[in-house]
Amino acid sequence: MIKDELRQSDAAFQRGDPEYFARVLPAREYWRLYPDFRGRTAFLDIETTSFTPHYGIVTCVTVHGGGSTRTLVQGEDLEEIGSVLRPFALLVTFNGSQFDVPFLTAHFPQIRFPPAHADLRWLLHRQGLRGGLKSIEARLRLGDRSGVEGVDGLEAIHLWYQHCRGVKGALERLVAYNRADTVNLEPLMEYAVRQLTRTFSQ
After folding, report:
1. Residue 148 and residue 65: Cα distance in Å, rounded?
2. Range of the domain at 66
3. Under 8 Å CB-to-CB from 144, ≥6 apart: which residues?
4. How many domains does the chain have?
5. If residue 92 lies in a helix (H) or strand (E), which one and from where to where?
6. Nearest Cα to 137, choosing from 181, 93, 103, 98?
7. How confident is the model at residue 20 (pLDDT cuts 50, 70, 90)?
8. What's the CATH code of the domain at 76?
9. Three-state secondary structure call for residue 68
10. How far is CA 140 from each of CA 30, 59, 134, rounded to the nearest angstrom?
11. Quick one: which of 44, 60, 56, 49 has its CA closest to 101?
């Protein structure tokens, strides 16, 4: 039986099938897929007008991975989020299991996410790193927030409404903030996977 499972696992690995591993691995171990699916990993972060999908909308979403970074904006191309995510095998977010994914699902019921989702909030929590994304970045000295220092989720809401009122530069600043939140997930994921791998190899 173990030999059969090993053969199935090897076959799934050879054909690059993340759905097999998403079925056989517990969700808290999805981070193990990252080294082998690095090129098919989507780092994702969203901005909204509320902290609950029942009272707000998604204003922009950035997907970083596969050699590119794309930001989709409400009223422009946000409806393409499903097709943008389609090629990816692994989704990486920070607190996305409680915020980003439920929010997107509420507003885009037909969306299909990558088969495996690694939430960095909980991966880092397992390593004693608690708090918000920006505080953890600062503690680890990872990520780049040049040009959007001090911007937070509340200001992101104000920036969207400023954009709606025609304030010049508001959308550009919102997009820059959203992209920083997303792109900075990559070095954090590298750190988390490296630390977890070291822990389990001891």
Report:
1. 21
2. 2-201
3. 180, 183, 184
4. 1
5. strand 90-93
6. 181
7. confident
8. 3.30.420.10
9. strand
10. 23, 29, 10
11. 44
Instruction: Count CA within 13 A, CB hemisphere, residue 149.
Output: 4
150-189 pLDDT, tens digit per residue, is 999 999 999 999 999 999 999 999 999 999 999 999 999 9
Q: What share of the chain is helix, strand, coil (3-state, %, to 5)?
A: 50, 15, 35
In the three-class reduction of DSSP (H, G, I as helix; E, B as strand; rest coil), residue 168 is classed as coil
Look at the block and give the residue holding tokens 């970074």.
Answer: 69
Residue written as tokens 């025609």?
A: 166
User: CA dist 24 to 21, 27, 158, Å?
Assistant: 5, 9, 43
Task: Provide the token pair at 140.
Answer: 């680890």
Distance from C-alpha of 101 to C-alpha of 134, rounded to nearest angstrom? 20
Nearest partner of 44 among 16, 66, 76, judged by Cα: 66
